[in-house]
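Good day; I would like, with your permission, to put a structural problem before you. What I wish to show you is a protein chain and, alongside it, a tokenised description of its three-dimensional fold. I would ask you to consider whether the tokens describe a fold that such a sequence might reasonably adopt. You will find the record immediately after this paragraph:
***
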Amino acid sequence: MDEFDIPIFKKTYELYKEFYSFRHAVSKQDRYTIWQRCENLILDILESILWASQLSKIEKLPVLEKSSLKLNFLRVFIRLCKETRVLDNKKYILFEEDVDEIGRMLGGWIKSTKDR
């Protein structure tokens, strides 16, 4: 199995590229605080997905659960970006929809790992 063909990996990869593309539209003070934190979380989640794809079923669950927790942190920080006007509503909705879809995919992966 090619780990780069995993749909959740592709979706998270695209989320990072999309997020990164807005980086220069963000003020310097925000770019190096909350925006950087969001970018780092997306990269951590991407890394964890790749890592989990290489692990045995027993080892996979804790990595996936940690990814889920980081995704929840990302949700909170993206909402905070909207509320502090770092993100406008249109971009917020775009990112929130992607994060929700990744969350559903991750939840399904966690469930299928637990069921085995």
About this structure: DSSP finds five helices and no strands in the chain. The helical segments are 7-21, 28-31, 34-53, 57-83, 89-115. Residues 57-83 form the longest helix (27 residues). The CA atoms of residues 15 and 95 lie 7 Å apart.
